[in-house]
Write a structure and sequence with these properties.
474 residues; 3 helices
Length: 474
């Protein structure tokens, strides 16, 4: 079992001078005039006035929280109930000697992570409240509650009951956020919400990983090789703090991890070529040549789906820590039609029409990650030989080939764009054939074109500089 202190909780939103509560330095650079976002000029509000330490429910804070900078949003803070994360790891392996100097190893590896950091809105909008406000007659003619309206003031045209509380006609509801804001009606301060969307960075995450690992190793005469295969699955609620989770149901986004790799096969090999059998006359020149390589065949990483909207009516918008909205698409019915060879045809990797924007008042009905992107097939190889010059000195010739079969590798957690909010192609400068930013299209590669390098090394106690000739085939 392992545990670690989450340093991230120590580094988020610790205010420094001249901002926040820790201000002890006063600099004329931050004096009036202070320009607001709307162009209004006012006095600088920093440093903030520190409230008394003995403030309680019966001895209220005398400093009213009614400044013109409400609603305060974009903040992320660790909740006071955070605790230490830890992992539990388990491993079981069987190894057996086979004929022809071969060793077979079969293993099971697993782990569970507990109390990892997740980001969720500390002050989400209440979808049920927003939908209830849209009942006929509740709001004046032309007024409605919808996406992005979590911080809107709502004037009640008639009595309205919600959560067991009846608000008379004429009441002004201060938005739909019910987290950090204590009440719908702020009677002791000026109109407006206390907070917009602010996040907790809480140690509430759990994850698990399970894998079957099979390895075959052998060394027979001139051939040495190792074959390794892993069949695995990784599940979590969020793969990083950039994945916001649903504040009303932390397990709503539980599914495949961004780095889940179902199949992964790696072969390494070294073979001494029997070229000396071709000619006795040139036997000295032909013997000693070896070919080595690494071949990897793997399934793809999951495609991360998202949509840039607030149909969930929660207002859980990106703030620099979480990089995407909470909202997920709805499944539209048509099959995904996974493209088995996006390298060749350049078409969409999956059917974009299989998804639509989530219904208003819901967070979406598809999993954040449930199908995988394109896999990898790559081989790097080297042909080399050592020539003995004299005692202690060896000349090595090497021909290295990277991406031997010249495959484009659309591989990685971001290989396919799953953001439904990006429906148009964005051409990246210098990459005429790269259609990044288009929903359902392969958007990034993790490989270079076939590259050949001829290297000559003189190996002795001091390694001389390499002489390299590189050739690239696009």
């Amino acid at each position: 079992m392992n545990s670690v202190i989450e340093g991230n909780t120590l580094g988020i939103d610790e205010p420094q001078p001249p901002y926040g509560l820790s201000g002890t330095v006063f600099n004329g650079l931050y004096a009036a005039p202070y320009n607001l976002a709307d162009g209004t000029i006012t006095a600088s509000p920093y440093p903030l006035t520190f409230p008394p330490l003995n403030a309680t429910a019966s001895h209220a804070n005398p400093i009213p929280f009614n400044n013109i900078y409400n609603p305060q949003s974009g903040m992320t803070a660790p909740p006071p109930w955070n605790t230490y994360p830890y992992t539990e790891d388990y491993f079981l392996s069987f190894e057996r000697q086979l004929p022809w100097q071969t060793v077979l190893s079969i293993s099971y590896a697993g782990s569970e992570g507990h109390h990892s950091l997740l980001v969720y809105s500390a002050n989400p909008g209440n979808p049920a409240l927003c939908m209830a406000l849209n009942q006929p007659g509740i709001l004046p003619t032309g007024a409605s509650c919808g996406p992005g309206g979590e911080n809107t003031n709502y004037n009640l045209a008639q009595p309205f009951t919600f959560g067991g509380v009846t608000h008379p006609a004429g009441t002004v509801l201060q938005g739909t956020r019910l987290g950090l804001n204590p009440n719908l009606i702020n009677s002791n301060v000026t109109a407006g919400n206390y907070f917009g969307n602010d996040d907790y960075d809480a140690s509430i995450g759990n994850s698990n990983y399970n894998a079957l690992q099979v390895t075959v190793r052998s060394s027979v005469k001139s051939l040495t090789y190792s074959l390794a295969y892993t069949y695995s699955k990784s599940i979590d609620q969020a793969s990083s703090i950039s994945d916001v989770v649903n504040p009303y149901n932390f397990n709503f986004t539980r599914g495949l991890s961004a780095w889940n790799l179902k199949h992964n096969f790696v072969a390494t090999y070294d073979y001494r070529l029997p070229l000396q059998r071709l000619s006795n006359r040139f036997r000295r020149a032909l013997e000693g040549w070896e070919i080595s390589g690494v071949t990897r065949v793997a399934s793809g990483f999951p495609v991360t789906l998202s949509t840039n909207g607030d149909n969930s009516l929660q207002g859980s918008s990106p703030n620099g820590v979480n990089n995407r909205y909470l909202d997920l698409p709805d499944f539209n019915g048509p099959p995904l039609k996974i493209n088995s060879n996006p390298r060749a045809n350049g078409l969409q990797y999956f059917n974009a029409n299989a998804f639509r924007d989530n219904a208003e008042g819901t967070p979406g009905d598809v999993a954040r990650r449930y199908f995988s992107g394109p896999g990898m097939f790559n081989t790097d190889a080297v042909l080399h030989r050592n020539f003995q010059i004299r005692e202690g000195q060896v000349l090595q010739l090497r021909l290295e080939v990277f991406n031997l079969f010249n495959h484009v590798q659309f591989f990685g957690p971001a290989a396919v764009n799953g953001d439904r909010g990006q429906q148009k192609p964005v051409w990246e400068s210098g990459e005429r054939n790269c259609r990044r930013g288009w929903f359902s299209l392969p958007s990034s590669t993790r490989s270079r074109p076939r590259t050949l390098e001829f290297l000559s090394d003189r190996l002795n106690e001091r390694i001389d500089p390499k002489v390299a000739l590189a050739y690239k085939s696009c």
